[in-house]
Design goal:
Structural class: mainly beta
CATH topology: N-terminal domain of TfIIb
Radius of gyration: 12 Å
Low-confidence stretches: none
Bound molecules: zinc ion
Number of domains: 1
Shape: globular
CATH architecture: Single Sheet
Distance between the termini: 18 Å
Number of helices: 0
Helix content: under 10%
Strand content: 35-45%
Mean pLDDT: 91
Largest sheet: 7 strands, antiparallel
Order of helices and strands: EEEEEEE
Length: about 80
């Protein structure tokens, strides 16, 4: 699914983390908000900051139900 680079309607969840930031939960992967715009949010995989993984996966969400994935795949399994 990392090859899908167009906007798709999908189910995802926003989660507020303890530090007041925003997380995104989608297909078992957790993302961290990188930059917020008026109608879209840029996300990076929460494992991006992991020194061992440095997962390159990213995505963009628009509103509550539209998501666009980057062409970079996750390099790890979903968080179960
Ligand atoms: Zn990842």
């Amino acid at each position: 699914m990392c090859v899908n680079r167009s906007w798709i309607a999908a189910n995802f969840q926003f989660k507020r983390n303890r530090r007041g930031g925003l997380n995104l939960l989608y297909h078992g992967y957790m993302y961290t908000a990188e930059r917020r715009y008026n109608s879209t949010i840029n996300w990076v995989c929460s494992r991006n900051s992991s020194l061992t993984l440095r997962c390159p996966a990213r995505c963009i969400t628009a509103g509550q139900s539209n998501i666009k994935l980057s062409q970079r795949c996750h390099n790890h399994s979903p968080i179960s």
